[in-house]
């Protein structure tokens, strides 16, 4: 199941969408640890949230040369994990650059293949591993009116289309880059944590009936913003990334999180 953040190219409206055909949880390669990191999005929410099995988290953050995310966004992502997950032995980020795969714009299958070729960190006995890739090109799903900024496509994997993010930030009338990156990263990881109703059970009726797997509270990080073009401006107008609302937090807490 694909989780998208799209920004209307004229109005910078935040648009979040999902499509079942983009679930790339098929298993290739050998070894149970590899298979455990190639499951459907949201299926490992409890493992990521609680310390029942995994006492620590490692984030393997890989970016194409020239498309490194900001330090502020990485720090904000770690803070998000610390605020919502129980990992008494800590959270580690291992960051490295790779050369361009050279086949942008990227299909979903190509993004998964890049992970398969470059990922080195998988779950161990007491550490859960996350793959985060920052791409040097656009998604092939981009249209003339909207672009994809990020996708959560496996239980511990997500991609940020950093070239697109850079093109839509840090200019007049555009969001601050670190703020936009933070919003995209934490939204995508919210889906990996099972939000909304994507592996983490609802504790109250707050799933958007018109936009499945998203929260119906318009100030929540997991909200599917309207398509009118006001989304991103409204959500980051206060100078900080949107936060999870109380109902999403209650869902995470019931599934082992903070």
From TrEMBL:
MF-aspect GO terms: metallopeptidase activity
UniProt key word Protease: yes
Taxonomic superkingdom: Bacteria
Keywords attached to this entry: Hydrolase, Metalloprotease, Protease
Protein's recorded name: Membrane metalloprotease
Species: Flavobacterium fructosi
């Amino acid at each position: 199941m694909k989780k998208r953040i799209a920004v209307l190219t004229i109005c910078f409206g935040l648009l979040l969408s999902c499509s079942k055909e983009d679930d790339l949880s098929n298993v290739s390669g050998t070894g149970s640890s590899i298979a455990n990191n190639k499951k459907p999005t949201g299926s490992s929410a409890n493992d990521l949230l609680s310390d029942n099995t995994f006492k620590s988290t490692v984030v393997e953050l890989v970016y194409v040369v020239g498309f490194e995310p900001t330090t502020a966004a990485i720090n904000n992502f770690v803070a998000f994990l610390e605020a919502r997950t129980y990992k008494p032995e800590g959270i580690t980020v291992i960051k490295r650059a790779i050369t361009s795969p050279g086949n942008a714009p990227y299909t979903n299958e190509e993004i998964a293949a890049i992970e398969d070729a470059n990922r080195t960190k998988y779950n161990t006995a007491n550490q859960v591993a996350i793959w985060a890739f920052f791409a040097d090109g656009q998604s092939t799903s981009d249209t003339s009116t909207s672009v994809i900024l990020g996708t959560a496509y496996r239980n511990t994997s997500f991609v940020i289309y950093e070239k697109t993010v850079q093109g839509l930030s840090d200019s007049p009338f555009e969001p601050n880059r670190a703020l936009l990156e933070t919003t995209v990263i934490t939204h995508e990881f919210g889906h990996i944590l099972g939000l909304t109703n994507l592996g983490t059970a609802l504790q109250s009726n707050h799933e958007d009936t018109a936009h499945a797997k998203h929260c119906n509270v318009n100030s929540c990080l997991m909200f599917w913003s309207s398509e009118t073009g006001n989304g991103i401006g409204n959500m980051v107008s206060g100078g900080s990334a949107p936060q999870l609302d109380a109902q999403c937090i209650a869902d995470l807490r019931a599934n082992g999180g903070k």
